[in-house]
Amino acid sequence: MFVVDAAGTVIHASDEFAAQLGADAAALRGRPLSDFVGDGDWPDVRGTLDAVRRASGWESRRCRCRLSAGDDGPAVGDAPAEIDIELEFAPYRGGDGGGYGDGDGDRFDSDSDANRVVGAVCREPSEPTTARLHTERDRFDHLFDLIDDAVIEFEIVGIEPVVRAVNPGFETVFGYDADEVRGESLNDFIVPPDADDEAVDFDQRTADGKANHAVVTRQTAWGRREFLYRGIPYSRGDGKQYGFSIYSDITSQRRAREHLQVLQRVLRHNLRNEMNVVLGMAEEIREATADSRVDHAAARIAAHTETLLRVSEKARTAAAVLDDQRPDEVVDATETVRAVVEPRRTRFPAATFDLDLPPSLPVSVGPKLAQALANVVENALEHTPEDVTVRIEAKRCENDATLRVSDDGDGIPEIEWAAVFGDEDITQLSHGSGLGLWVVKWVVESAGGRVDYDRRDGWSTVQLTLPLADGSR
Questions:
Q1: What would the pLDDT profile of 211-251 be if each residue is shown by its tens digit?
Q2: Which residues are CB-neighbours of 321 under 8 A, at least 6 positions away?
Q3: Where are the beta strands (DSSP E) in 236-335?
Q4: What H or E segment, with its residue span, contains residue 88?
Q5: What is the pTM of this model?
Q6: Taking each helix axis from N to C terminus, what angle separates 292-323 and 432-446, rounded to the nearest 10 degrees?
Q7: Sheet-wide strand order for 400-407
């Protein structure tokens, strides 16, 4: 061991410490500790020393560094020129509590933080030290206690997961007290009878050191709930098998998704059928009447009915895109732009298409890019004059690709772009183009991209930023 004063000067060194450095103990006294610390290690050592001096009460700190006797140190024996070592610093007090004696009758006050004498114990760096393990355990305990998800630590005994600890999140989510489940089989409390086989499979995988990940139904004190379950095995080196179970309650999300799917399918089906009937009746009225006012009213009914049918079709397309759970894949943005534009040249003969595309631009988003891009182009064509100019530019930009679709029309109505690209209430959407823009946003963001809108100098621009899918990413 050795002791340093507030100035970082060695005031005592044991013979054992000096021997490790290949020096004489007396020769080390009175020299700055920094003389013995390897290049680049001193900031860490000094920071550890300062932390010990600033700490209130007794507190030790550890650091790892390289030490040597320095060029001026007298060599003793065959000790190495430099050693890799772990130091534990702590406030130092003499045996009578009054400071450390230097052997010549002088004593050094260690009561003042500014003048605190610090002692250091040297250890061989090997396995994690007790202090480090305590630090790691403290960090884990903090996470374990504060995470909202239910977390259970268990031991596999036979084939049963016996609870060793649960966090407060478990008590909140499942409704069982920690003392009630500790030492008991977890399955007896949370696994419904019809999921016994599934639970046994998970436990066997944990016993085999394999992780688990699934959506499961589990029993709580208030009934069944849906959870995202993650099982993590671990070993303490004592021949036993342990694990953590993490349960994230996704009941509300799954039910909301199911409700929306049912409602949108029923609404879409009924809306399409009933609107087709209304449209047919409006046409019959127009054919049968000679009254211009009735004909005008019937024409308005037909026009609004067709608008509703287009919205229904957009909703159907949006649902198909969002329900597509296939993983992203690489597509060529250049080819996708051409495939979207070409059929629209015929449908919109008065429009001008100005394309600025590279030979190839691979992006990671999948075939849904075509549907997203089609919505942007359709929006530029359907809500502008017939002779609109649509510019589409694609380019590589560092690790991303950008697709810019611009038109010289009147721009996206503020009530729509503010809801999609800003912070406005989504209930303010007024027509079908807003739904198309939402599809664009969802598709691009699901691929890790971004959608931006800009209006300047008479041009409206929707920019899609997408992840590149070549070697530069």
A1: 999 999 999 988 899 999 999 998 877 788 899 999 999 98
A2: 368, 371, 372, 439, 442, 443
A3: 241-249, 330-332
A4: strand 83-91
A5: 0.50
A6: 10
A7: 352-356, 389-397, 400-407, 459-467, 450-456
